[in-house]
Amino acid sequence: ADIKDLIFIEDIGHGSCGTVGKCSYKGVIMAVKIMPRTKNSYEMSRILMDLDVICLSFDCPYIVRCFGYFITPTDVRVCMECMATCLDRLLIHIRQPIPERIIGKLSISIIKALHYLKTKHQIMHRDVKPSNILLDWSGVIKLCDFGIAGRLIESRAHSKQAGCPLYMGPERLDPSNTNSYDIRSDVWSLGLTLVELATGQYPYAGSEFEMLAKIVHGEPPRLRPGNFTPEFCDLVEKCLQREPNLRPNYNELLQHPFILFHEQQETDVEEWFADVMGV
Ligand code: ADP
Ligand code: MG
């Protein structure tokens, strides 16, 4: 592969760790994420390891396909399949909540993607949010951006160094527990994402400091029962529990009545998407 064959077409967007542009590579349209290289060689090696996992994940239909990456003296360029939009931009564009039947379908995709990452590659995502859930024109929903994902084992070693173990809670000191403690923070992120999609709004308000304080000390967000089915409210309530060990794992989530129900449904996501986009 030659980086000279990568032709820039237009900007897609900017994020916390770089920019994404639409490019053509030998006639194939791709989304290319450009991230500045870090001088920290430890971090750089982590990024490269994550990239290898992303590129290996093409056997999961719910994860954005990665074709490969280029490393230049100044940056890393990851070539991915180009999707139509991400869910945060979609929310802004349609200016209304996403209907529950569509959320049912996308919950299935996202939970299966997270489950796949955990069972196949022993990693957690760490950055589940609407902008990392993408949709293509045929209505396929995929997860992307293992931006700060690290291998579970590594992250465990890492979390032991962060903070003094004498002051850590028992669940963090018990090595057999660290696993579930870690991975279940993705389940919280999933729950919060679902609330945002279902209501059309990020559930906390105020300054960043105030929002963080509410997340740490306040009651977790809930869906209003009148507006949604009891099954959907229950799924969100189970994901958004402050105690990580009480949150369901992926097998439990896949068996949840909300998920089982929507797996039976023939929801036409493609038609809905074309409709709201005015195509
Ligand atoms: P963020 O932190 O918002 O996720 P990113 O740098 O990951 O920032 O992405 C910037 C923008 O590019 C986002 O709007 C995202 O949805 C979009 N994007 C990322 N990857 C793709 C892709 N494969 N296809 C289409 N759009 C993408
Ligand atoms: Mg992203």
Automatic annotation (TrEMBL):
Broad enzyme group: transferase
Signal peptide boundaries: none
Keywords of the record: ATP-binding, Kinase, Nucleotide-binding, Phosphoprotein, Serine/threonine-protein kinase, Transferase, Tyrosine-protein kinase
Biological processes per GO annotation: determination of adult lifespan; male meiotic nuclear division; oocyte development; p38MAPK cascade; positive regulation of axon extension involved in regeneration; regulation of growth rate; response to cadmium ion; response to starvation
EC number: 2.7.12.2
Keyword Secreted: no
Catalytic activity as recorded in UniProt: L-tyrosyl-[protein] + ATP = O-phospho-L-tyrosyl-[protein] + ADP + H(+); L-threonyl-[protein] + ATP = O-phospho-L-threonyl-[protein] + ADP + H(+); L-seryl-[protein] + ATP = O-phospho-L-seryl-[protein] + ADP + H(+)
Molecular function in Gene Ontology: ATP binding; JUN kinase kinase activity; protein serine/threonine kinase activity; protein tyrosine kinase activity; SH2 domain binding
Protein kinase domain ranges (all copies): 6-259
Recorded family membership: Belongs to the protein kinase superfamily. STE Ser/Thr protein kinase family. MAP kinase kinase subfamily.
Protein name from the UniProt record: mitogen-activated protein kinase kinase
